[in-house]
Specification:
With 465 residues, the protein is mainly alpha-helical.
Length: 465
């Protein structure tokens, strides 16, 4: 059997080697949530969406993301597995609610991956204007999948090296913004404006501001990426909670600060907001052409790094779902495929490459709104922590303080996400209706499965050490 031939893992059996330290998982997680993707791609998208309201979007969104990370931390400390938190939800809330959650998250992981790949296009075209958007996105996904198919520790070392370039790019943007700080721009944060028609500025609509907060939360989120490496991590049950919680806080600060400072340093506001890549435009005006070009090169490397880390994490989530027989038999068989040499989930990587590539054709705005509309996540995570604490189903390895404040806030956030998306009739409402339809259809499918004797979801069989 060759290294790339499939090996089906029996349901509940471990597929990965426990070789990663908490520090390595932290670096993989930071790379997967990718501050550069969040700032240089997500920031561009939110600046287009809400203008200088992006500052409020990242401030409030960062607080939301850090709060949600606490929920992921407590649940993953009790039920660590490569499938993320769905094992915890299944144990506490049961498959009736876990199954639609799993299906909705599966649908959303493809636009999330595609969003990172699409965002590299404007930066590549700064150097190679003849390369099309589609070619750059598909090429990024293909190369990332190739690296993700290597051994986990080797891939983690490559990603950690590239992460340094990512942090340097963020540092350059932060220093450039601090050097051109303008007290007068505080008004742009308190009274946000958006560019229309290229040269005109108008007040940012409240609906756009609400969407900026939700999108900002999505860009600052990602601490739960750590949970997908639970079966690669040493002593995951005791160490996973703190890694997830601290990552949530650190990521929120890393991502929010450069965007806020940039808005406080802009001079030609209308031109910057209407540029194809507002942050690159800002760097052109505030640094030398050489520095701007080097940063843009660093951004290309960093975005690729983030997409690779996402590929590694999401492939493990999909593999765990196939191992737990979440999907039809033919799909489960493919998702269980693992390289006997590298232990990489090659079947899941292939699905990510093909389906993620198709999603790249949706475009930036649709992808960012679709990716940030997961209303079920806040709702079910909050309910799971409340119910798990009451039933004694959560371990003592990590506990959220000030309980039950955090899960109650999460319940309120789920309502806010639905309301904010519904208020935008152009794009967000359509995306929200699609996501609600997916959740509802999955719920109905599960109920049909129960009545016919077919249980679509089984608990992830991770060993809890």
């Amino acid at each position: 059997m060759t290294a790339l031939e499939a090996e089906a893992s029996p349901q509940g059996q471990k597929s990965f080697d426990r070789v990663l330290s908490p520090g390595e998982v932290f670096l993989l997680t930071i790379s997967a949530l990718s501050p550069v993707i969040s700032v240089f791609i997500g920031g561009n998208a939110i600046l287009h969406l809400a203008g200088t309201g992006a500052a409020i979007g990242f401030i409030c969104g960062g607080l939301i993301a850090a709060t949600m990370a606490l929920l992921f931390a407590e649940l993953s400390a009790s039920y660590p597995g490569a499938g993320g938190v769905y094992g915890a939800l299944n144990a506490i809330l049961g498959p009736r609610w876990t199954y639609p959650f799993v299906i909705l998250r599966t649908v959303l992981l493809f636009p999330l991956l595609a969003f990172g790949a699409v965002g590299v296009g404007p930066y590549i075209r700064l150097f190679l204007p003849w390369v099309s958007q589609d070619a750059s996105a598909l090429g990024t996904l293909a190369l990332a999948a190739l690296i993700a198919a290597s051994q986990i520790r080797r891939g983690a070392q490559v990603i950690a090296a590239f992460l340094l370039i990512e942090l340097v790019a963020l540092l350059v943007l932060t220093v450039a913004a601090l050097a051109h700080f303008k007290f007068g721009n505080i008004g742009l944060v308190l009274s946000p404006v958006i560019a229309v028609g290229g040269n005109s500025l108008v007040s940012t609509p409240s609906t756009s501001l609400a969407l900026a907060v939700i999108s900002g939360a999505m860009m600052a989120a990602g601490a739960d990426w750590a949970t997908y490496f639970a079966e690669d991590m040493l002593d995951a049950k005791r160490r996973m909670g703190p890694v997830v919680a601290w990552t949530g806080l650190i990521a929120a600060m890393l991502i929010a600060m450069p965007v806020i400072l940039m808005i406080l340093a802009m001079d030609d506001v209308a031109a910057t907001l209407s540029a194809e890549a507002p942050i690159a435009h800002f760097l052109d005006r505030t640094t030398s052409p050489l520095i701007s070009s080097l940063v843009s090169l660093g951004i290309i490397v960093a975005i690729f790094n983030g997409v690779t880390a996402m590929m590694m994490a999401l492939s493990r989530q999909l593999h765990a779902m196939g191992r737990d027989s979440v999907f039809p038999a033919s799909i489960n068989k493919m998702l269980r495929s693992v390289s006997p040499r590298t232990r990489a989930p090659t079947g899941a990587l292939l699905i990510l490459l093909v389906v993620g590539g198709l999603f790249t054709f949706l475009g930036e705005r649709r992808l960012v709104l679709l990716s940030s509309g997961n209303f079920s996540e806040c709702l079910l995570l909050g309910l799971a922590v409340l119910a798990g604490r009451k039933a004694g189903a959560l371990s003592a390895h990590f506990r959220i303080r000030l309980h039950p404040v955090v899960p109650i806030v999460a319940l309120l956030l789920s309502i806010s996400i639905i309301a904010a998306n519904w208020a935008d009739a152009d794009t967000a409402r359509v995306s929200m209706c699609l996501l609600v339809a997916v959740f509802t259809a999955a719920f109905a499918w599960h109920e049909w499965g129960v009545r016919t004797g077919r249980d679509p979801v089984r608990l992830n069989g991770s060993d809890l050490e």
